[in-house]
């Protein structure tokens, strides 16, 4: 360790989201007022001054700015203020406010040391793909194994490693890939077919002495869609789930029932080898149809019964198991006293335990899942049916020009009427 670091308190970690701003205040003693103030980074075991103020003149305040960095020295309040804007993941590292004598041959000394962690924050829907690139020092760390690990109570547990001989089990077997470009000094990690339980904090890291040394941190939020449906006994439920046909056309689609603490129990699935655009399968009161051209899975449950109440999934059926496309919470009260049948608007629900605050993820029309109810019973003449004509607008802002609906009035035919 450098002599300049001896006697310093352990560096405090400052975590910032990529694109945000770092503001750091470094107080100093009165006898240090005439020294030059700067901002330095620890590189190769030595402090490299990135920006420094000019010698103080008549004014009590001096300031220097270069690119995204600004250093301001107020000798009256004896305070150095450093501002770094538009932070990037590669800005992560050890930094300090520096002091240096105005003499040309003087060396900078650290005034206040911080460990800066600039993390990426990514929001995705279930079944989406996330791909991140992590830059490292190509010369020094070219031969060091790289890992992708997930933060937890026991530290960062590796899931993927660049060395093919590494054979530890990992939770995303078959859905994640790590690639290392030693010449460019870039590690690329791709996670596909995301599920809500994949939400968490991840590191690209160097695997030194069997301990991950962070290169870059990713905070991943994965939202699922949950729809609440209420129907009466003897009615028919029709649920439609959308998917990206370019990615999931050849995958079998499934309908399963989820009990608390248990895997989703398969009820019905389509056959991948079935010819044509529409792949249909039926078992008892349940039918499933996959429109592989449009990317629409339709599940129909007829003659609903009270025991059909529960939680269901539209899912992809892959070798590793079922991957949720959408969740449907169905309520079928006994008898016909359950009130009006309805399916609520889909809700975007983030995985419980996601890192930090949870925000609504971005909307993509290809990921929209929704459900409709069709009724076997004759509607009353006074009844009105409403429909949204453009499902792709479901999660946009509440602009009046985007809301389109129809009111359909039904008239009862006379008993003797024909045609």
Q: Which short descriptors sum up this protein?
A:
3 domains; Immunoglobulin-like; 5-stranded antiparallel β-sheet; 419 residues; mainly beta; single chain
Report what the structure shows.
By secondary structure, the protein is mainly β. It has three domains: 3-117, Immunoglobulins (Immunoglobulin-like, Sandwich), CATH 2.60.40; 121-221, Immunoglobulin-like (Sandwich), CATH 2.60.40; 225-378, Immunoglobulin-like, CATH 2.60.40. Helix content is 1%, strand content 50%. It contains one helix and 29 strands. It has a 15-stranded mixed beta sheet that branches.
Quick structural gist:
The protein has 419 residues and is mainly β. It has one helix spanning 245-248, and strands at residues 12-17, 22-27, 36-43, 46-52, 61-66, 69-74, 79-84, 93-100, 109-125, 130-135, 146-152, 155-161, 176-181, 186-191, 200-208, 211-230, 236-242, 252-258, 265-269, 278-283, 286-291, 296-301, 310-318, 321-331, 342-343, 347-350, 369-374, 384-388, 405-409.
What do the pLDDT scores average to? 80
Structural class: mainly beta
Major sheet size, sense and barrel closure:
15 strands, mixed
Number of domains: 3
Task: Give the ordered list of helices and strands.
Answer: EEEEEEEEEEEEEEEEEHEEEEEEEEEEEE
What is the radius of gyration computed over CA atoms, rounded to a whole number of angstroms? Answer: 30 Å
| Number of β-strand runs | 29
- How many H/I helices? 1
Show the helix and strand layout.
Layout: E1 12-17, E2 22-27, E3 36-43, E4 46-52, E5 61-66, E6 69-74, E7 79-84, E8 93-100, E9 109-125, E10 130-135, E11 146-152, E12 155-161, E13 176-181, E14 186-191, E15 200-208, E16 211-230, E17 236-242, H1 245-248, E18 252-258, E19 265-269, E20 278-283, E21 286-291, E22 296-301, E23 310-318, E24 321-331, E25 342-343, E26 347-350, E27 369-374, E28 384-388, E29 405-409
Parallel strand pairs: 1-9, 9-16, 16-24
Antiparallel strand pairs: 2-7, 3-4, 3-8, 5-6, 6-7, 8-9, 10-14, 11-12, 11-15, 13-14, 15-16, 16-25, 16-26, 17-22, 17-27, 18-19, 18-23, 20-21, 21-22, 23-24, 28-29
């Amino acid at each position: 360790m450098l002599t300049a670091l001896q006697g310093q308190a352990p560096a405090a970690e400052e975590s910032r989201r990529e694109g945000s701003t770092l503001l750091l205040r470094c107080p100093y003693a009165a006898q240090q007022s005439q020294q030059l103030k700067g901002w330095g980074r620890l590189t190769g075991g030595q402090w490299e001054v990135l920006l420094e103020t000019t010698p103080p003149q008549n004014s009590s305040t001096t300031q220097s700015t270069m690119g995204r960095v600004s250093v301001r020295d107020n000798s009256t309040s004896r305070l150095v203020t450093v501002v770094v804007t538009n932070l990037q993941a590669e800005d992560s590292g050890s930094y300090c406010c520096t002091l240096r004598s105005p003499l040309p041959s003087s060396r900078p000394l650290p005034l206040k040391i911080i460990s800066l962690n600039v993390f990426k924050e990514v929001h995705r829907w279930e079944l989406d793909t996330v791909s991140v690139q992590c830059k490292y020092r190509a010369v020094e760390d070219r031969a060091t194994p790289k890992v992708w690990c997930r933060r937890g109570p026991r530290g960062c547990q590796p899931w993927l490693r660049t060395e093919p001989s590494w054979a530890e089990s990992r939770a995303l077997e078959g859905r994640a890939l790590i690639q290392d470009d030693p010449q460019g000094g870039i590690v690329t990690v791709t996670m596909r077919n995301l599920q809500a339980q994949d939400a968490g904090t991840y590191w690209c890291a160097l695997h030194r002495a069997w301990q991950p040394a962070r290169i870059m941190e990713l905070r991943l939020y994965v939202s699922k869609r949950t729809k609440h449906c209420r129907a009466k006994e003897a009615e028919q439920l029709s649920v439609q789930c959308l998917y990206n046909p370019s990615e999931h056309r050849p995958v079998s689609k499934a309908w399963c029932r989820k009990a608390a603490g248990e895997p989703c129990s398969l009820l019905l699935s389509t056959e991948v080898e079935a010819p044509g655009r529409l792949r249909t399968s039926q078992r008892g009161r349940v039918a499933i149809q996959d429109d592989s051209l449009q990317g629409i899975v339709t599940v129909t449950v007829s003659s609903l019964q009270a025991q059909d109440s529960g939680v269901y999934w539209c899912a992809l059926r892959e070798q590793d198991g079922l991957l949720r496309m959408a969740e449907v919470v169905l309520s079928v009260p006994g008898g016909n006293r359950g009130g009006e049948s309805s399916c609520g608007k889909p809700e975007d629900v983030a995985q419980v335990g996601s890192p930090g605050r949870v925000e609504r993820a971005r909307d993509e029309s290809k990921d929209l899942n929704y459900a409709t109810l069709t009724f076997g019973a004759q509607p009353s003449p006074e009844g009105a049916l409403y429909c949204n004509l453009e499902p792709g607008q479901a999660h946009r802002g509440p602009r009046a020009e985007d809301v389109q609906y129809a009111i359909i009035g039904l008239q009862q035919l006379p008993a003797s009427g024909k045609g």
